[in-house]
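For anyone still unconvinced, we reproduce a single protein record, the chain in one-letter code, the fold tokenised, and leave readers to judge:
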Amino acid sequence: MRAESRAEDVAVAEDYYDSDDADRFYFTIWGGEDIHVGLYETPEEAIAPASRRTVATMADMMGGAGKSARIVDLGAGYGGSARYLVNEAGAKEVVCVNISETQNRINRDKNKAAGLADRIDVLHGSFDDVPAKDEAFDVVWSQDSFLHGADRQRIIAECERVLKPGGRLIFTDILQTSDAPADKLQPIYDRIHLSSLGSIDFYDEAAEKAGLVPGPRKILPDMLATHYGRVREELTARRDELKGVVSDDYADRMIAGLGAWVDGGKSGWLSWGLMTYDKP
């Protein structure tokens, strides 16, 4: 990947997540803690508890690497997972790496208010160029972030670089299936300014090239359409409340974009899952 292309990719993500519309939308609809796909017990369940269930499930999947661990959260958003990891999962320390300084500021404020500023560090940076030394972490953690990176092979290689031997990479991501027609997914590609998404086969091959071996995983395609359907319902129902908070143009584009994710999930062209890979 050319340096200019990577710089453009990072800039697009940074500009989007730093925008007032995006920040207010994610903070309002998700509640300012977790901004990733949830694990739903029913299709009608509220977004926040379903999203938090994803965090708890991932924490259980960290295995032995997660005990008293030093963890890096790549694409950490508002830091809800980091606070859960130190409060509930026994993590020693979490380093949040995130491209949006708007989200980073809120993350730092929440950590300070919770008395956790000494155990959670928040760094401005990209997950394909992690600001950390080699073999610095027991666990590399990420939720629905890698899809925003054009060079996902480089991302997985960076994960391997910063993992200690015996460490675990655990992440969720939106996945395209091996037979997904590119023309049908184009509206989704356009929304995230990319030309593809990762797949299970891709991540397995990228991990093998990086020297990582597959660990436990949960592939749950139904959760994708359920989650984005719930977000779309919530946004539609709360349009009046969001007047003056989120622009009408942004809300209209978001409703259309969310519909594309739902259609992709229901069609079988998109999937979602919790993946782990271990460093020998």
